[in-house]
Design goal:
The structure is a single chain. The chain is about 45% helix and about 15% strand. The chain is an alpha/beta fold and about 400 residues long. It has a single domain, classed as Luciferase-like domain (TIM Barrel, Alpha-Beta Barrel), CATH 3.20.20.30. The chain has an eight-stranded parallel barrel with strand order 1-2-3-5-8-9-10-13, surrounded by five helices. Strands 6-7 form a two-stranded antiparallel sheet. It has a two-stranded parallel ribbon with strand order 11-12. Strand 9, helix 7 and strand 10 form a beta-alpha-beta unit. Helix 1 runs parallel beside helix 11.
């Protein structure tokens, strides 16, 4: 299981102190959090893409992720959302292939439509075409990474004739792609069609909503021949706030929750915690609720947590990361114990995909050599048609 954190880069006033961090502070804090995540043993750091206040998540995530590639050694660097609807697929193909080389393959992407409606007209798009844009733009991106010379004609952009996207993907392997959705079955279908991952950021709604999307994705993944339904590549979001004592966690987090830009002034902390994956409590409570995800969604391959938001100071976020690092061995052991042997433990990475390709090539070569050897032996004559098993021995 890959475990990590993702950030949305909100610039929010701390309700307990009245301090509002500057944009500069939030950008520098993001870098510090990624480095801390690697320090405590996490696998993934992901960033959202936003184009409006109060967010300073990068409008072009490759800028941040390229910097993080230079200051980390092991972390997989991901987008929490790349807007496939409003970004040009040609630019995405080039930028992320370049980033892939800079990061020595330590990157992947989560494609999404975004949850800020005005972003569409900002980039000359129509929100009513959101699904169509997502489907067509990704089809083009997928081809640009896999075909050296592309001829393309679609509905939403000018045609391409004899176009080559550069640089080409590292080792001829494009970055692994997840398709993120919180409401659209069409996106689950798209992920299944390509055999890509499906990321359900289940931080807002009850599990039953996401069970429907993930079940659809799994069934269609199997339908398209990529493996059995339970082998489909699933990622989940989550949220927690931990203290050693459960009530201390509730008391400390309540003012942040009540004033958070994403869910403040709505349901109470207790209501939200009972209806969504949010856990506010002790480390043991976080372990227990997180492990319930496998009961609801089956074995999955990536777990990302939202920790850095709602005005929490950097010191507090670091403390949350330290606590996550402490419970990580227990979570990993329990996930592994619950995972069926035929289900992947981790999502595809650049090294694992490269190894799989090399193994497949070696097996194909062995088969070819074996066939050549058989046809060259004296006993390799075509068997009599009346004895179809005459080549079998013993």
């Amino acid at each position: 299981m890959q475990v990590g954190v993702f950030g949305i880069g909100d610039v929010t006033t701390d309700p307990t102190t009245g301090r509002t961090p500057s944009e500069h502070d939030r950008i520098k804090d993001t870098i510090a959090i990624a480095k801390k995540a690697e320090e405590v043993g996490l696998d993934v750091f992901a960033t959202g893409e936003h184009h409006n206040p109060p967010f300073v998540a990068p409008a072009n995530p490759t800028v941040l992720l390229a910097h993080l590639a230079a200051v980390t050694e092991r972390l997989i660097l991901s987008t929490a959302t790349t807007l496939i609807t409003t970004n040009d697929p040609v630019r995405l193909a080039e930028d992320y292939a370049y980033l892939q080389h800079l990061a020595d393959g330590r990157i992947d992407l989560v494609m999404g439509r975004g949850n800020t409606g005005p972003v569409y007209p900002w980039f000359g798009k129509d929100i009513r075409q959101g699904i169509g844009l997502a489907v067509e733009n990704y089809a083009l991106l997928h081809e640009l990474w896999r075909t050296d010379v592309v001829d393309w004609q679609g509905k939403f952009r000018t045609p391409l004739q004899g176009f080559t996207s550069t640089p080409r993907p590292m080792d001829g392997l494009p970055p692994f792609v997840w398709h993120g959705s919180i409401r659209s079955p069409e996106i689950a279908e798209q992920a299944a069609y390509y055999g890509d991952g499906f990321f359900a950021n289940n931080i807002f709604w009850p599990k039953e909503h996401f069970q429907q999307l993930i079940t659809l994705y799994r069934k269609r993944f199997e339908h398209y021949g990529h493996g059995s339904a339970d082998q489909a590549i699933v990622g989940l979001g989550g949220q927690f706030f931990m203290r050693r004592n459960s009530q201390d966690a509730v008391n400390e987090f309540r003012p942040y929750f009540d004033n958070a830009p994403v869910y403040g002034h709505g349901p109470s902390l207790e209501e939200f915690s009972s209806q969504t994956p949010l856990t506010v409590g002790s480390p043991q409570e976080v372990i227990e609720k997180t492990l319930e995800f496998t009961q609801s969604f089956g074995s999955y391959q990536r777990q990302l947590f939202l920790l850095d938001h709602a005005g929490l100071p950097l010191k507090t976020t670091f403390e949350q990361l330290d606590l996550l690092g402490e419970i990580l061995p227990t979570l990993r052991a329990e996930w592994e114990a619950r995972r069926p042997a035929h289900v992947p433990a981790d999502p595809p990475t650049h090294p694992s995909r490269l190894a799989a390709r090399e193994n497949a090539a070696a097996e194909a070569n062995d088969t070819l050599v074996g066939a050549t050897s058989t046809t060259s032996t004296p006993d390799s004559t075509t068997p009599d048609s009346t004895t179809p098993d005459s080549t079998k021995e013993g």
